[in-house]
Design a protein that fits this description.
Length: 446
């Protein structure tokens, strides 16, 4: 069937397409590197005409045109499913808000919501011969979003990789209201930061020593997971699999080093499953039309039942701080927002249920404040206002540059002792004193 005529009928300018949006509407802006570009600029031109337009998305990789004006918050709000550094600055301006979620549940939030999108618009890869627009590396929740939105506008970008999957990885032209051909900007990139530090490398080595051949990997974003990936690529490990929330550059390095084949996976054998991907052009080129990769909705990739069905599942994630009770904060510095909950808890739970599985929370033992003070990331209790991402009952392995400890099933004093043993030596006596005050320290075990 030839869809070219329907394509021509639905093709409009960005300025024409955004006329669908009215004051008071809820408008989805896409996700991560699929966030709209030409449509964003077109909507910004209509700022003075609109009030109370609620935009929804997450993990912005560049600033939005609609929020360039100082008074943007009087016209638009940004409602984020997961925060980037750009969005943190928008919170400080008073025009952005985080929606606390359990990421694996996000598609259901759309399907069960009493507040569906009036308009959903997002970037896509060019239409294929069968009339489908690929979501690129952003299957995540976009299938559910399209099912429930009243109007759909796709912004075609020739640079968007066509990511293969099988379910909910694209939208058919018959469901689309308008098609916009944008300026084809490069896909937004997210690097892994600077080169791995000595601390990152020390943590990575401790984790890699725990990974068996045939393990299935999930890596979070950041210096430490990236260092783990680099070390795996240089290791003698083999027959590894991938089942992850976020696909990152480290997986490309591991795969190109011949370490990944997925042959030992209990489900989706020989395929690397992921909910979304953000990285460099190297990664996007690798993802494009690659049948080894499997783009899937997040309620599949992050479902504890999917994760736990994979033997030897290894989950590796970062944290901001952890307290002596084993509570992990990966989202805030007190009440100052840093990140979202994402799928960390799902993978902590799922990896522990996996046959031979382990979850690792990794963090440097210390950090420096703006005025140069050295502070411990292992705290007696979490700082006031800090978010508990992983509860004390769920935390499995914790790793700093001073060692790794398994805190599952430990009594309160055993857990405090284990965590203090991997704290920076300069803070251990102080932590012991605080543990004594909280009655979670046995003097005989000092």
């Amino acid at each position: 069937m030839d869809f070219s005529q329907e394509y021509k009928q639905k093709l409009v300018s960005a300025d024409e397409a955004v006329k669908l949006i009215k004051s008071g509407d809820w408008v989805d802006y896409g996700w991560c590197n699929g966030t709209v570009d030409a449509l964003d600029k077109a909507l910004a031109k209509r700022t003075d005409e609109l009030t109370n337009v609620n935009l929804r998305g997450g993990i912005l990789l560049k600033p939005l045109a609609v929020f360039e004006r100082e008074d943007a918050g009087e016209h638009f709000t940004w409602n984020s499913w997961h925060m980037s550094g750009i969005e943190r600055k928008m919170i400080a301006r008073g025009c952005a808000y985080y929606a606390p979620i359990r990421y694996s549940e996000l598609p259901r939030y759309y399907r069960d919501s009493d507040c569906p999108d009036d308009v959903a618009m997002f970037q896509v890869a060019p239409m294929d011969a069968h009339g489908f627009f690929s979501f690129g590396p952003n299957a995540s929740h976009l299938g559910a979003m399209c099912e429930t939105s009243k109007k759909i506008i796709v912004e075609v970008n020739q640079n968007m990789p066509r990511c293969l999957g099988g379910t909910e990885c694209g939208v058919h032209i018959s469901k689309v209201t308008y098609i916009v051909e944008g300026e084809n900007p490069p896909i937004g990139e997210m690097g892994a930061g600077g080169p791995a530090s000595d601390v990152d490398k020390a943590v990575a080595k401790l984790i890699v020593d725990e990974i068996p051949n045939g393990a299935c990997l999930q890596l979070g974003i950041g210096g430490m997971p990236n260092a783990v990936g680099s070390l795996i690529a240089e290791s003698d490990l083999k027959d590894l699999g991938v089942h992850t929330e976020m696909y990152v550059d480290a997986f490309v390095d591991i795969a190109k080093a011949g370490k990944i084949n997925g042959s030992k996976k209990n489900i989706d054998r020989f395929r690397q499953a992921y909910a979304f991907g953000a990285g460099t052009k190297k990664m996007y080129d690798y993802m494009d039309n690659n049948p080894e990769l499997m783009s899937a909705p997040v309620n599949y990739t992050n479902d504890i039942r999917s994760i736990s069905s994979l033997d030897n599942f290894i989950s590796i994630n970062n944290a901001v701080e952890i307290d002596l009770f084993g509570q992990v904060n990966a989202e805030s510095a007190g009440t100052r927002h840093i990140s979202g909950a994402g799928g960390q808890l799902d993978f902590v739970l799922g990896a522990y249920l996996s046959n031979g599985g382990k979850s690792f929370i990794c963090l440097s033992s210390t950090y420096k404040t703006k005025d140069g003070q050295l502070k411990s990331r292992i705290q007696p209790t979490l700082n006031p206002g800090s978010i508990v991402t992983d509860t004390r009952a769920n935390t499995h392995y914790v790793v700093t540059e001073y060692g790794k400890v398994n805190v599952k099933g430990l009594s309160a004093w055993q857990k405090a002792e284990a965590l203090i043993s991997i704290a920076h030596p300069d803070f251990r006596e102080e932590l012991i004193a605080e543990a004594e005050k909280m009655n979670i320290w046995r003097r005989s075990s000092k």
